[in-house]
Amino acid sequence: MQVPNEQKRRHITSAAAKMFAARPYHKVRLDDIAAAAGVAKGTLYVYFDSKEDLYFTLTFEGFAQLVDRLNAQLEGGANGEGVTGRRPQAGNGFVHSRRLASAPRVRPACALGCSSSAQLECIVHELVAYAYQHPHLYELLRTVGAAKVRSKGAWDAKCRQLTELIERTIRAGVAAGELSDPRPELTALCIPGMVRSLMLFGTKGITEKAASAQIVKLLTRGLAADRPARKAAS
Amino acid sequence: MQVPNEQKRRHITSAAAKMFAARPYHKVRLDDIAAAAGVAKGTLYVYFDSKEDLYFTLTFEGFAQLVDRLNAQLEGGANGEGVTGRRPQAGNGFVHSRRLASAPRVRPACALGCSSSAQLECIVHELVAYAYQHPHLYELLRTVGAAKVRSKGAWDAKCRQLTELIERTIRAGVAAGELSDPRPELTALCIPGMVRSLMLFGTKGITEKAASAQIVKLLTRGLAADRPARKAAS
Amino acid sequence: MQVPNEQKRRHITSAAAKMFAARPYHKVRLDDIAAAAGVAKGTLYVYFDSKEDLYFTLTFEGFAQLVDRLNAQLEGGANGEGVTGRRPQAGNGFVHSRRLASAPRVRPACALGCSSSAQLECIVHELVAYAYQHPHLYELLRTVGAAKVRSKGAWDAKCRQLTELIERTIRAGVAAGELSDPRPELTALCIPGMVRSLMLFGTKGITEKAASAQIVKLLTRGLAADRPARKAAS
Amino acid sequence: MQVPNEQKRRHITSAAAKMFAARPYHKVRLDDIAAAAGVAKGTLYVYFDSKEDLYFTLTFEGFAQLVDRLNAQLEGGANGEGVTGRRPQAGNGFVHSRRLASAPRVRPACALGCSSSAQLECIVHELVAYAYQHPHLYELLRTVGAAKVRSKGAWDAKCRQLTELIERTIRAGVAAGELSDPRPELTALCIPGMVRSLMLFGTKGITEKAASAQIVKLLTRGLAADRPARKAAS
DNA sequence: CATGAATGAGGTTTCATTCAT
DNA sequence: TATGAATGAAACCTCATTCAT
Q: Residue A82 CA to nucleotide E21 C1', Å?
């Protein structure tokens, strides 16, 4: 009850995420969030400037975590941790950090040495996995854009990071003769869109695996180089 | 739908659509809508039950219009009129109703006699065209789901109509040996997602044509039957 | 319940004046004002922008009324009415508008043709009379300055009007050889100060007449020309 | 008055005085005072019971200091120390403590042996001097009365001390045939009022000397005994 | 049908005060 | 004694909704 407790902040964001995911922004009362977080109403203002700030922080941090993790996994294959960047991870292979970076499971190496389509597969897997791990967040992101009030710039930058990451991967594949895509920047936009649709509008019966496989299939075949059978050759 | 003054109703929905698209639901005041529509605040309640009703009607009518039109064009060339009650359309072929269905132009027949990939192309074209015609609405639909308060059933039904329409098209193609897709219901979900992403997050430079072409390419190649149809060969 | 009722506005200001006079600004709740005025809380915001606006309007209008009345009586001797400037008054003599301009009593003519000390007497009478009629307001003005938030300029201008009015009167007396005052602008500041002190800090036993007489005496003797016995001679 | 750390207390009162003088009570936050004083918010409660207590102490101590000093100088040349506990003053004559009583300069004896008008002059000088030395306080006292919450009695007593001091002086002059004033208790009220007005509402150009002289002139001539003392003759 | 003044429940936010450290 | 995170009552204000005109 003395230092600005990081754990208490977590309680708040966690509680808030659930409430914002469950009903629209204007129907979420700070009273409820405070109650759910087990803190007093005033305490919210110790950690956040306003309702909007709380909401923004919530969504942005979630999204940033996703993007940063993807970046980390594809760029350096170093650690699979999110935005808060804690201790580096031993395994240098590709990592599905499904469990919030606790108990990181090693995956078949994929990051740098892999074929482009394998990398795309990684991206899709990761996006879908994140979506299944954070259904609240995805429900949250549904309304983002209308409310990314404060530093719109931060959101835009993160979005660009994500699309550029994908775009770069595709371009590499194209350069390697492995893929064919005259407009990779458009494909980069399509991928998160597909994930989102499957998450939000799919009937509950869709498994993570199926969703991922479907997107991967559409992509790998849709982007396959015109003369196939030459996987990832130099 | 038979209200005192249909024109006044139009003013209201038009003004409301702009406001709701521009800022989030809870930041739109009925005062503003009334002012923008040139009516008194009380008048809003002559045409709508509540703020939520207004919002719901707005989004649902827009979406229903899109789905109905698609249905009409693919199913039997019936009419393309949406919820807002447009006149029945003459042409019974496939119609790109790009110009708000005023001056309905007949298009190359496509609906029933076409190949499945041609039909998919139609669907995508139509979705994209609608998105470009109604940017407000697409921005609006971004937040739908969180607020589809009242007759959630109506929305769900329309959504299902859309996905089933697409799904049916794909299944037909599969049955004809033209396409290959073990999970058409998933693909059906992906398509609107791609449209949405391109619309909302693409830099403004993306033309309607490019967006449409990109999705079509991903689809037609991604779903192409395994062996035949060497279409895409150079 | 349709036109922005002027009478309702009066109810509000009247109720508010009592509350603000009774306790300090921060202890006055809008709830109480609304209740005392017999209106809903929201109605306050139909007539005023904020609590501060209400308070400011209150004090300023009261003070302005005082100054305007004084001005009217001395300048033209026309009507004794306040700032709202209603129908001109028949009697062109000096008028102590003690009863808020209802039932205006004619007083010995004084305005233009009088000696300067008689005019000063009028000013003091009027100030004191106003103070006794509006004890609430005087209690209110006690805190003004700290809170004249909005258009500080308006207050300053009115203050200047008052002091200049007095100053002008004194200067006229000096020019006529009737009074002696090398710094009339300082005397002009002293007069309201004396009124205020007597009002706020005097024991309740001080009659209006006594207060007025005391100030007049201090002034007329204090400012008497060095060689007396030549009353108002040219 | 015997608090843990007298210096810290000083920091607090000093900071608080500035803040309360600069804006109205309800706009001063304890956070700000604490920050300005360089202490933690909780520390304020070591030295004061509440915000009101702090404010009250502040204003009362300032006013009491003024009154006590006046008393000391006129009554018996005791000491001029106020509530804030300054060292006893050496000089037993009348002292213009213009420089915050540091380096107390002896002044021409005035207290007991002087003429009444000379004593009045002393009082006015002292009041004006104090006002010029403590502009913050005068700004503060402007709102006093509305907030003299706690021991209203203490304030009233001090006020009475001041007026009675003045009143006694005048009565002595009247008894000596030097002055003429049928209602000295009213004059006693007027004097601080004039000081206040000149301080608060005068344009900044008014020198301490001019303000003092003006009041003295009004008083000495206004109260001069009817016939004798041709002092003011040219 | 149309109006817009009035309503008042309930929202977000503030801030004096407490208390574990 | 000093701290400042936590508290929560209560303030100001909003705005969807009503209804007399």
A: 33
Give the integer Cα–Cα distance in Å for C35 and C31: 6
**8 A C-beta contact, residue B184 and residue B164:** no
> How far apart are alpha carbons B221 and B210 in whole angstroms?
16
- Strands C95-96 and A105-106, bridge-based pairing: unpaired
Q: Would you say the C-alpha torsion A114, A115, A116, A117 has a positive or negative sign?
A: negative
Confidence of residue C215 (pLDDT cuts 50, 70, 90): very high
Task: Determine how many CB atoms are found less than 10 A away from the CB of residue B181.
Answer: 22
Instruction: Report whether pLDDT(C203) > 50.
Output: yes
The residue with tokens 């018996």 is D76
Picking from C183, C200, C215, the nearest residue to D214 by CB comes out as C183
Q: What residue has token string 């959504």?
A: B159
- pLDDT exceeds cutoff 60 at B5: yes
pLDDT above 90 as % of chain A: 38
Q: Which two tokens stand for residue B109?
A: 């027949």
User: Smallest Cα–C1' distance to nucleotide F3: which residue has it?
Assistant: D40
pLDDT at residue A96 greater than cutoff 60? no
Q: Which nucleotide is nearest to A43 (CA to C1')?
A: F6
For residue B82, give the DSSP letter.
-
Closest by Cα among A143, A156, A165, A138 to A69: A165
Q: Cα–Cα distance between A131 and A151 in angstroms, integer?
A: 24
Specify the amino acid at residue D49.
D
Contacts of C120 (CB under 8 A, 6+ apart): C166, C169, C170, C173, C216, C219, C220, C223
Q: Which residue is nearest to nucleotide E13 (CA to C1')?
A: A50
Q: Give the pLDDT band (50/70/90) at residue A32.
A: very high
Structure tokens at C194: 């004396």
Give me the A residues in range 5-44 that sit within 7 A (CB) of strand F: 5, 8, 39-43
C-alpha C169/C-alpha C180 separation (Å) is: 12
What's the confidence (pLDDT) of residue D110? 53
For residue A204, CA distances in Å to A135, A138, A182, B152 come to 12, 14, 35, 17
Nucleotide nearest to B52 (CA to C1'): F16
Q: Touch between chain D and chain C (3+ CB pairs, < 8 Å)?
A: yes
- pTM summary value: 0.78
Contact B193 A198 (CB under 8 A): yes
Q: What CA–CA distance (Å, rounded) separates A143 from A200?
A: 12
Q: Assign B124 to helix, strand or coil.
A: helix
> What mean pLDDT comes out for the span C107-128?
77
Helices (H), D76-151: 116-133, 135-141
Q: Which stretch of A23-27, B40-44, C217-221 has the lowest confidence by average pLDDT? A: A23-27
